[in-house]
Amino acid sequence: MIDRHGEAALDAHFMAFDTICNATQERQDAVREMMLNPPDLMLVVGGFNSSNTTHLAELTARHCPTYHVDDARRLISPSQIEHRPADSHDQTRRRA
Q1: 36 and 59 in contact (C-beta within 8 Å)?
Q2: Residues whose CB falls within 8 Å of the CB of residue 56, separated by 6 or more in sequence, listed in order
Q3: Are 94 and 83 in contact (CB under 8 A)?
Q4: Ramachandran sector of residue 6 (left: φ over 0; alpha: ψ -120 to 50; beta: rest)
Q5: Residue 81: closest CA among 40, 61, 68, 48
Q6: Which pLDDT tens digit goes with each residue over 19-28?
Q7: How far apart are CA 75 and CA 94, in angstroms?
């Protein structure tokens, strides 16, 4: 942009904003509303590399035990789950 319009005219040709898609915003809003009366636990299903899913897990972890899984295979048994804690990049196994 600087090469094309010059540094002095940059503000007239460039604008940046912090946005997320409508569906993501709706999910985050719904989770925030749900956390006004949090459940006993939250199971968040989605890719570990998804910033949107990770953020949902972070939002819920502030209010209730949260288990972020990327696949149904992480549900090992009725008493064991492999998940990624909201404050970690590593998977862990929890026995209920």
Answers
A1: no
A2: 27, 28, 31, 44, 46
A3: yes
A4: left
A5: 68
A6: 678 888 898 8
A7: 10
